[in-house]
Amino acid sequence: MLAVRHCYMGSPARSRVPRAAGSLFRVTKMSRRRRIYEGKAKVLFEGPEPGTLIQYFKDDATAFNNQKHGIITGKGVLNNRISEYLMVRLEEMGIPTHFVRRLNMREQLVRQVEIIPVEVVVRNVAAGSFAKRFDVAEGTALPRSIVEYYYKSDKLGDPMVTEEHITAFGWASPQDLDDMFNLALRINDYLSGLFLGAGIRLVDFKVEFGRYYTDDDVRIVLADEISPDSCRLWDIKTNEIMDKDRFRRDMGGVEEAYQEVARRLGILPESASRETKKPKLTA
After folding, report:
1. What's the pTM value of the predicted model, to 2 decimals?
2. Which residue segments constitute the domains of the chain, with CATH numbers given?
3. Residue 63: which pLDDT band, with cuts at 50, 70 and 90?
């Protein structure tokens, strides 16, 4: 059986910190907290309460399985706020997530979950590797939303897998897969409408799920993040790219594109996106 490398739980915090202490968790004090896991764009630290973690958003940008790397100043701040906004909206629609609350400009408190090592990708429009794989013109609307699965493995290059692979190797049960599939389509339906209202087309996106354990139950919840790092977002009128493809394709203007997404969602004041390069986010 293949090893499941990205399933992390982390052991529960040994000390309890009052909720009001969120402001204590600043970048300058990261070294005082036990690091649980570090990925390409985020770091997970032991949380202030049992069953929680602190998710820190970095400014690192990667592409092509980490073969391309850069730093985009302010990206972590923007992604933290955009992901917070979208997670809260999805929770309001009845979609369970790991998000608890934002702690500061770069960190959020999340529930401790067991990550399922399968990325779920939902595609509405042909773009990127999908367009190349099937020789379809980029920008072609798909007849229906297509759901794909990828095994989370940097060593293997995150290969596409089938439901048979997932269940055979024990990465997820058939019931887990049903829950992930249905939640992914519900997320797609809601986010497509939300972004459309902001003049943005949701071309495709990637999500991750985890198992959230309670005393008498286990449920599948949305984890990780939802941001321009994990979505393809195009302007509805011009098809201008407003996501990480600007970094992948050396187009420039990455920070400005992320700011524009935040501005259209009502997170970033319009004056800030026009007058400064550093994100100034609303409280």
Report:
1. 0.85
2. 19-113 (3.30.200.20), 115-275 (3.30.470.20)
3. confident
